[in-house]
Design goal:
139 residues, alpha+beta, Thiol Ester Dehydrase, Chain A, five-stranded antiparallel beta sheet, two-stranded antiparallel sheet, 28% helix
Length: 139
């Protein structure tokens, strides 16, 4: 299975006095990667909102494996995993330019209407976009 890759650089405001990236920024980097992949298939927050839905994170799991440092080039690799429920599960990893795996993460998103009412079935238009994403990731 293929993944979508987003390239980033560790910026000065993301490190501590030892020039090590603060752990909270890993979560933000995962979000950048997720939105980059989702946007490619018109599934980012803005596109969902236009369709009348939200996709809030209901679960986040992250494992820190190795530190990132100031000015490091990093890559966020993102993919989705199929689920049996009306949820979207993103599996991600953050990789250093030298190939070191810095972190892995998994987020689970539910689909709600604009009033926060959870949807138990994914609407056809969103299903089509998710299917397009899955096909691309599996090609």
């Amino acid at each position: 299975m293929r993944f979508h890759e987003t390239r980033l650089h560790v910026r000065f405001n993301e490190v501590d006095m030892y020039r090590v990236a603060w752990h909270g920024h890993y979560v933000a980097w995962l979000e950048v990667g997720r939105n980059d992949l989702a946007g490619r298939f018109l599934m980012d927050a803005g596109h969902l909102e236009k369709l009348g839905f939200l996709g809030p994170v209901v679960s986040l799991e992250i494992k820190y494996l190795s530190p990132a440092f100031l000015n490091d080039e990093i890559f966020v690799r993102s993919r989705i995993n199929p689920t049996e429920t009306a949820t979207i599960l993103f599996q991600q990893e953050i990789i250093a330019a030298d190939g070191r795996k810095l972190a892995t993460g998994v987020t689970t998103h539910v689909l709600t209407d604009m009033n926060g009412v959870m949807q138990f079935k994914i609407p056809t238009e969103i299903t089509k976009r998710l299917d397009d994403m899955k096909k691309w990731l599996n090609s």
